[in-house]
Design a protein that fits this description.
- This protein has seven helices and no strands.
- It is mainly α and 167 residues long.
- The protein folds into two domains: 72 residues; 82 residues, Arc Repressor Mutant, subunit A (Orthogonal Bundle), CATH 1.10.10.10.
Amino acid sequence: MPKRFSKEFVIISVLMFVVIASGLDLYTDLAHGATDSHILKETFILLLSAALIIWILYEQNLQSVEIEKLKQELEQHDMNQNGVSDYVQGARKQLSEVIARQFTDWNMTASEKEVGWLLLKGLSLKEVSAIRDTLEKTVRQQASSIYKKAGLNGRHAFAAWFIEDLF
């Protein structure tokens, strides 16, 4: 499946066009003796567009750092499983097999299964979308489909379905 352009990429592209066009217009206006008012407006548009580009890039960088942190936390969590006793690891393995079988019985797609596992691990929809590199809206739709296939009314009921009778 081809990768779509992100909203941020499209917005940055438009803003870059505005910066370049404003810069060229500002240059020609200065050469032709435009009014100070017009020069000030053009400069404001150019600076505002540039500031928005910088802000979007900064936010994307923060998101990338957060995504990497989440991935490392998941890896660390998986590595920490070594300190767990054998009977707990066995029980987790059995529960994982039961969950996988139930996902299959509910006729979940591969994507829905992946989202389901991440939701059961406690990740938010935003975190799931970041890890899977998909839109949050897509993850929300997949989660809704999971709940519908399971005959449940939401995330808490979904998680509780697997552990409800353990206590």
